[in-house]
Amino acid sequence: MSDATQTPPPPADERIKDISPLRQALIRPELGGMVGTVAVFTFFLLFAFDSGMFNAQGVMNWSVVSAQFMIIAVGACLLMIAGEFDLSVGSMIGFAGMAIAIFSVTLGWPTWMAIIVTFIMCCSIGALNGFIVIRTGLPSFIVTLAFLFILRGFTIYFPQKLERKTIIGGIADAAEGDWLAPIFGGKIGQGLFQWLGDMGVIDVFERGTRQGQPVVDGIPMLIVWAIGLVIFGHLLLTRTRFGNWIFAAGGDAEAARNSGVPVNRVKVLMFMFTAFCATVFATCQVMEFGSAGADRGLLKEFEAIIAVVIGGALLTGGYGSVIGAALGALIFGVVQQGLFFAGVESSLFRVFLGVILLGAVILNTYIRRMITGER
Amino acid sequence: MKTMLKSAALGAALVAAPMSAYADGHETLSYVLVSHAPDSDSWWNTIKNGIALAGDQMGVSVEYRNPPTGDLADMARIIEQAAAAGPNGIITTLSDPDVLSGPIRAAVDAGIDVIIMNSGTPDQARAVGALMYVGQPEYDAGYAAGLRAKGDGVGSFLCVNHYISSPSSTERCQGFADGLGVDLANQMIDSGQDPAEIKNKVLAYLSANPETDAILTLGPTSADPTLLALDDNGMAGDIYFGTFDLGENIVQGIKDGVINWGIDQQPFLQAYLPVVVMANYHRYGVLPGNNINSGPGFVTADGLEKVEEFAGEYR
Fold it and tell me: What is the pTM of this model?
């Protein structure tokens, strides 16, 4: 070994193509997402700067919405890189929220138990999704579409049967004093925000029971979860052997199997992780709002997929990045709320969303082709 | 880090300052109406027209916002967004107090006046600190309709619920059942929002339960396909048919004698009056002393001209 350090650097391996550092820096799935993020913020800084979008409340508003998208986008991103879809994410959100409500309010379980049992149940359903896909060889598109209906149906049926209504409230009261609930529904940094409010940096409430308190009184755990999941997903994908397996499983499952990658296990685990993310989303939501409704999470599966695709992942699998998906979620959240701030006629909202989605995907594809030279 | 924080804080302060000045200016009053309705619910068009007209007449700026899928958690974010944008007033529905009372309360505490319209109750409106409630108490309206139907000899019914996830929709059916003095049980179906599905579900229910006396629909979304279903199976004009809300086809149905009555909660007033009330409150400090009931009013075959002329637009 000591000899090797003394010899002059060996000639470059002729099997490795020489790539300039600039180009190497650009060959990233998240490049499109980065360009998009800059573009979107520039746009809204120009057109909605004085609309309240960039004061404390406004920033918190689009941050929370973006964080919501991020949580489900991380799961959807890893699953998509592993070559599969999950269309049951939105229904899973409604289902998980309703499960927590039924366990804790209707059945009177302690909240921590309701949350843990719900997580176990939802991850099991995720595993079932994956297992059916693996065993039958059916496209995950179809299998999870079935679960989209099955879970949504149960989400309406059970509360209707048990409580004769489709929204179950009272979760906040049930969760009072619970040790696990604040991890999903709590806030951190209250002291800092109170100080900022006292210093006049952010507005304080002018009247009511919260007079004198800052309008933004902490960072919701939802945002902490989003950041935590993004970091976890990014490290898992780029720094571990398992991350390579995810790419391999989505790139060419047969080749991966032949070289010893446990493709089935990877895919089932990714389905479970997607379900886990959906359940985190649902738990944060019911803990914040104190009620679960049968219509929660409608169409969220597509919003997750949109965020992932804006972030540069390929629908066919094997290519993508968690950071890209997070940027996609940020773009989506900022655009969605920003259009309200900019005062865009609300019936045109979906038109803008569609245009931005199309623009982002075309940009991504163009950049990827230009860089990788693929056709 | 410190300088970053400082510059961010400075930025926030710079934004906040002109906003509060803007809120005090009399000539630029701005109001946001937030509804719980998904994009697909055509009934809310009347609300849009109502605030637009009130905005024109009062010389104030008005905006309409809704969660595209009808997801109430998304609606809460929209209310938070509206509050952050700092309008003079927010007009909103209160279809689930658990979800919405927090954001509404926060808006009220931040100095924005709120009027609750359509969904919710006067008590809930008071609890969140709103100025008033403008709307039609849903259970009471259903109950009144039930009493009327009972007087007409109805003993069983089918409630076509196209928005089952909203508690107020179920309250209408429950009120109707209680008014009739029967158990709701399985007489309410979750029809979904798709016209073809609604039509076929109604057809299926009526062929399975041919002895059903009456049909109650909860708005044009469920009433229009139900009209087609009754045309198909020949029960039109024979079965007792009442509906909430009005629309072009419902008015035609009443005229043709297929629909016995429509309950008009006069959505126009629910959108128009809050804007007028708030604009006058903010300009002259005058405020009516009570909640405003915009309905219920029963629309029957008598006196349909105005209704017909403006159905789907202002009625």
Answer: 0.79
pLDDT digits (tens, 9 = 90+) for B16-67: 434 433 444 445 899 999 999 888 777 788 899 999 999 999 999 999 999 8
User: What is the domain partition of chain B in residue ranges?
Assistant: 26-136+267-294, 138-264
Across the interface, which of A165, A285, A289 has its CB nearest the CB of B167?
A165
Helix/strand/coil for B244: strand
How far apart are alpha carbons B36 and B34 in whole angstroms? 7
Q: What is the DSSP letter of A255?
A: H
Which chain B residue has its CA at the smallest distance from A208's CA? B109
Q: Which of B32, B41, B64, B74 to mutate to test the interface with A (most CBs of A within 10 A)?
A: B74
Does the structure's ipTM exceed the value 0.85? Answer: no
Output the CATH code of domain A32-44+51-372: 1.10.3470
Minimal CA separation from B179 to chain A, in Å: 18
Residues B123, B135 contacting (CB under 8 angstroms): no
**What are the extents of the domains in chain A?**
32-44+51-372
Pick from B13, B164, B190: which is nearest to A201 by CB? Answer: B13
The correct answer on CATH 3.40.190.10 for the domain covering B138-264 is: no
Do the two domains B26-136+267-294 and B138-264 of this chain adopt the same fold? Answer: yes
Which CATH number is associated with domain B26-136+267-294? Answer: 3.40.50.2300
CA-closest candidate to residue B169, choices A299, A196, A293, A229? A293
Chain B partners of A205 at a C-beta cutoff of 8 Å? 106, 109-111
Coil, helix or strand at residue B305? helix
**What pLDDT digit, counting tens, does each position of A281-320 carry?**
999 999 988 888 888 888 899 889 989 988 888 888 888 9
Render pLDDT for A142-188 as a digit per residue (tens, 0 to 9): 999 999 999 999 998 898 888 877 788 888 888 888 999 999 988 88
Cβ(B63)–Cβ(A343) below 8 Å: yes
Q: Which residues contact B73 (CB under 8 A, 6 or more apart)?
A: A285, A289, A293, A296, B99
Q: Say which DSSP state A15 is in.
A: T
CA distance A168 to chain B (A): 9
Of all residues in chain B, the one with the smallest CA distance to A65 is: B77
Instruction: Calculate the alpha carbon distances from A295 to B21, B78, B195, B269 in Å.
Output: 39, 16, 19, 28
